Amino acid sequence: MSEMEIEMTDDISGELSQMKESILISVVESNGFFRSQQVGEPDLTLAEKRDIASKLLDQNVPLFLERYWKYIKLKDVGYFESFKSYEVDFYLSEIRKFRDDRLNSIQIKNRRYGALKKMIQEGSYFSDAEMKKRNPYLYHQMIFQHLTENERIAAYKEQHKDEKFSSFLLGQMERNVENTLFEEQKNENEAIKEEEDDDDEESSEESELEDEEKSKFVSASEKVRLREEFTNLMYEKFLSGKDSQFDYGSVDQNAEYDPPEKYYDDEEKYFSNES
């Protein structure tokens, strides 16, 4: 064997050793099954878990994969390539699908979060006017109904300050759509309340009257809290993909919103431990 071949063999052997070590670390830190224990028996130590996992990996690769495939990272799959069998090939395929789906899901969440931060900074998509268009009923319940007359006038002027006379008709059409959406959301909300309400009609009416009275006397700090809650709900709706008119493809498939690569390594490790 030539020196070059010896070096290549050593390199491959070194890579396999690194992958094996990474595999064992991932498995030992997981919530996987190691052995049956009696009630009251102390939990296995990390050293005991490693000893069990290491022996199984050396003696029975298919069984090792059956137990721990969800905890193995994509970069370590190469360790098993030489163990050819139907069972091994099956679990390697499962690892690739599981990791690809997981990383795609993480990637989409991170890109949406990156887009959210950018849009908050720009102050357009998450302005009061735009959020009110998307969820007029929730805006009314949590913010508008608690404003004083002067605050309502100021809010209206702020929301329409850039509206030119030439766009008045378009603005009116948008307001008609908003009013229709308000009624739809109101009806949906009332239908949900009716389903959840197990009390009699009298107590329900009393509760409504109490809510009306409370809405007249909302403190400044409570207004701030309600505004923050409303805004957070709108953020969560965007992140979960429920803004029906938003083009999520422009974000989900856009690498511009990716965080640093190291972030994905940390995320993968976290989800491996959670699996």
Automatic annotation (TrEMBL):
Residues 110-274 form the CCD97-like C-terminal domain. Residues 181-219, 244-275 are annotated as: Disordered. InterPro entries: CCD97-like_C, Ccdc97-like. Residues 193-212 have a biased composition (Acidic residues). Residues 183-192 have a biased composition (Basic and acidic residues). Signal peptide: none annotated. This is Coiled-coil domain-containing protein 97. The gene is CCDC97.
